[in-house]
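Hi all, posting the design record for the shared folder.

TITLE: backbone redesign
STEP: 1 of 1
STRUCTURE INPUT:
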């Protein structure tokens, strides 16, 4: 089993920045009290130094409607093939529009969904503020972790990846 290392404030924010930026796509979960809760893939546009995460969103989307009813949001990131880094972050979301921020973050790819650019009437932004979460950060990647697990089956000795995991708390 890996080490447990709980992170608070700045250390937690740095971990969120690294994992959310490396992974990019998150499962953006709203209506957390519903069964099933609502989820959709969203592209992370930016993670600021205070932990705020920015997304672009259509003003008529289901997740925008959910956020207006209840801002509680869960983000679930899982790393690309070859790694086994994962992040689950809970916090609150706010539907907003900051023109300067939109201009800063807008890319040609975003124009696929918002053809009129930052002036598109359907364009909104989601400002996610994290409060807590959990991360799994493997030290050696998926292949090494798998090899260690297989060796433990053969030898009967513990052989889990020596990664780190822990709780995140942002005040």
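Okay, here is what came back for every position:
SEQUENCE:
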């Amino acid at each position: 089993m890996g080490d447990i290392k709980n992170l608070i404030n700045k250390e937690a924010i740095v971990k969120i920045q690294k994992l959310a930026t490396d992974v990019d796509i998150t499962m953006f979960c709203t209506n957390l009290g519903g069964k099933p809760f609502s989820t959709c893939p969203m592209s992370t546009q930016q993670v600021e130094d205070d932990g705020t995460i920015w997304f672009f969103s259509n003003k008529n989307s289901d997740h925008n409607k959910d956020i207006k009813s209840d801002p509680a949001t869960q983000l679930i990131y899982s790393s690309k093939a070859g790694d086994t880094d994962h992040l689950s972050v809970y916090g609150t979301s706010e539907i907003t529009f900051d023109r300067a921020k939109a201009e800063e973050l807008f890319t040609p790819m975003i124009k696929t969904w918002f053809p009129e650019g930052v002036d598109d009437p359907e364009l909104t932004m989601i400002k996610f503020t994290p409060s807590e979460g959990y991360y799994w950060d493997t030290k050696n990647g998926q292949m090494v972790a798998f090899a260690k697990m297989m060796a433990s089956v053969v030898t009967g000795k513990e052989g889990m990846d020596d990664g780190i995991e822990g709780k995140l708390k942002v005040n």
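COMMENT: The first strand starts at residue 3 and ends at 4.
Let me know if anyone wants the other runs.
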